[in-house]
């Protein structure tokens, strides 16, 4: 589990943390340059003369692998003394991060790793500790000494601190403490009351039990405030003192918005876990997939709308997954295709565009709210998924870092067969 605490470094500590981040950034960029040069030198343009393109690298020079780059660090420190300022394990993590990004590009299908600009490297990972770094109201970090920490909740007994990640957000500092415990947590099995959850734009969510939650208003209010601050920022002279002051104001508001949204997501997810024992959600990934592979024409207006907002929804799904795991509830993802066009009672297709808010089935006369209907369809599909596909097609919830950390496996999921073995459960 990861617990995040706020820390209060003094000015010298803050300066060295910022300096270390920049050194790590430079090391990251250097490593990436090596990889890029290697890749470029493997390309050969037959019709181009070497004035346009030439990389002087022996054809048999090996790929700058993780091990190779890590081993090169001690020598690099002699040439660039700046590298020596950073604790060596922290610096190594920057290279490891680069190769994780590279593997993500090679195997998972993420984008090519990018160079990081000044200020884009915002966290440092301390991967190992000989003894518990949290001592009383301080956290002890190598080369920095004691930093005051706000332990707003105690680290539970029986847990060992494995890693600490120091994060800089706006002008605040946080420590993400990774704690581990030698307990085997069984993955929750399907049981009890099922809930299908439909996430949308008009309403934040609708469940199969008929609960409707409106989209939070605070985002709109804060967005307009943000616009104002950004406008002021754009009128400041770049790199001036006032620019920097305004930049921090903008960053702080971004941070507040993130926190407020996350808080809202956690509250909603807790409410879902409290209401049922199995939570089913749409799997939106295929839409992102469809966008890349088939182009935008394939997507109807509804899909595009949810795609636009999917950043926030992705976080909500990750949080719900995590909370389900933590509270022993079952979490499942179902195929999202056409959930709003299907009748949950008889399985007939009821075409309706976004403006139609009520589902009225011509076949069986079932009438309900549009979003609740989607929730019902999702619940039915979820029940079908666990009864027909067994556990083969179901992902287990996991609990590592929040948003963005997960690798989607939804592509390999079994598809639900439409109307084949549906058990309409009421
Ligand atoms: Zn019907």
If you had to describe this structure to a student in words, what would you say it looks like?
The protein has 426 residues and is of the alpha+beta class. The chain has 2 domains: 2-180, no CATH class; 194-412, no CATH class. The chain is built from 9 helices and 14 strands. The chain has a 7-stranded antiparallel sheet. Strands 10-9-8-11-12 form a 5-stranded mixed sheet. Helix 1 (11-42) packs across helix 3 (88-108) and helix 2 packs antiparallel against helix 3. The longest helix has 35 residues, at 241-275. The two termini are 37 Å apart. The relative contact order is 0.10. Residues 343, 345-346, 348, 361, 363-364, 366 line the site of zinc ion.
Give keywords.
2 domains; binds zinc ion; globular; single chain; 426 residues; 5-stranded mixed beta sheet; 7-stranded antiparallel beta sheet; 14 strands; 41% helix; alpha+beta
Describe the structure concisely for a colleague:
It is built from 9 helices and 14 strands. The chain has 426 residues and is an alpha+beta fold. The chain has 2 domains: 2-180, no CATH class; 194-412, no CATH class.
